[in-house]
Amino acid sequence: MAAHVPQRQGVVRLSPPAAWRRWPCWLPALAWLLLLAVLPWWLDLPLLAACTLALLWRSGPLQAQARLLRLALRWGLPGLLLAVLRTFGAKDALAWLLTLLAALAGFSLLMLLENWLDRGRPREPSPAAAGEWPELALAPIGPAAAIIELQPPQWRPLAAGLADPLGGELRWRGAAVQLADGSRLDGVEPRCDFAADGRWLALPLAGQRGLMLLDRRRDRRHRLRGWQLAGWHEGQPWLSRDEEHTPLALAHVLGHDEDD
After folding, report:
1. Whose C-alpha in 35, 98, 231, 233 is 20 to 30 A from the C-alpha of 64?
2. Binning pLDDT at 50, 70 and 90, where does residue 237 land?
3. Which residues are CB-contacts of 190 (< 8 A; sequence separation ≥ 6)?
4. Going edge to edge, which strands form the sheet with 162-163?
5. What distance in Å separates the CA atoms of residue 17 and residue 14, rounded to the nearest whole number?
6. Contact status, residue 197 vs residue 232, Cβ threshold 8 Å
7. pTM of the model
8. Terminal CA-to-CA distance of the chain, rounded, Å?
9. β-pairing, 191-194 with 200-204?
10. Cα–Cα distance between 76 and 48 in angstroms, integer?
11. Which DSSP string corresponds to the chain?
């Protein structure tokens, strides 16, 4: 009958594989590099060539260790270069030149080999890119489009008087418009149009020179030369230079062509 041996609390027993994983993984690779640096270069070269042939042999017995073989080439190549430099003399400039040329050729061949081995492997996108790309592809480009339908102006003559939506009456007297509060507007034509809520009053300037706009809520007058009333949208006037140009909101026009 097997006896159960209780273990003390707080004591953790590691199995051999777990204990082995505690060692830094780069120590065997560094030992391999130092080994090739100590060995003669003519012995290092066949060892690295054997690793390369084992990688190229797809059905070979060492194909399961392909990752270790790649690490052996990556760390073994610097060891080979150190062995070459040690053999031909570290104080000789020609030896340094040959070693650098060998390093350039060796690492270039190693990169080509790894790219060729990975030629059939699909590249997995990073989690960040995989999450961002569909959102970017489906996201609208630029601001959301909005269809603006302008209500065309309805010019009303002032010769016989016109009722003001805000109260009172507008009259045409002495080549000027007399407002309900008694003030006069000179240099305008005897016709006008109101916004739907009566806030804005639009009058063409005499001689087709532009447009006069009255913001009666803020008691402001805007004399806009070269502009004409294209229509109304949500109680705001939209202006244009002529029929061939796109109408612009009043805020845009005042920011560039304000002439009070």
Report:
1. 35
2. very high
3. 157, 158, 159, 172, 177
4. 162-163, 169-173, 176-178, 184-186
5. 8
6. no
7. 0.43
8. 107
9. antiparallel
10. 7
11. -PPP-PPPTT--PPPHHHHHTTS-THHHHHHHHHHHHHS-HHHHHHHHHHHHHHHH-TTSTTGGGHHHHHHHHHHHHHHHHHHHHHHH-TT-HHHHHHHHHHHHHHHHHHHHHHHHHTTTSPPPPPHHHHHHHHHHHHSPSSSPP----PBPP--EE-TT-EE-TTSSEEEEETTEEEPTTS-EEESB-SEEEE-TTS-EEEEEBGGG-EEEEEETTTTEEEEEET-EEEEEETTEEEEESSTTSPPEEHHHHHHHH---
185-233 confidence digits (pLDDT tens): 888 888 899 988 889 989 999 888 889 999 988 888 899 998 999 899 8
The dihedral sign for the CA sequence 58, 62, 63, 69: negative
* 64 CB neighbour count, 10 Å cutoff: 8
Structure tokens at 181: 């509060």
Pick from 94, 107, 100: nearest CA to 82: 100
- Tokens linked to 226: 């070269």
Q: Angle at which helices 93-117 and 66-88 pack, to 10 degrees? A: 170
Residue 149 has which token pair? 């339908």
Tokens of 238: 């939209």
Whether 178 and 184 have beta carbons less than 8 Å apart is answered as yes
Tokens 């890119």 found at:
129
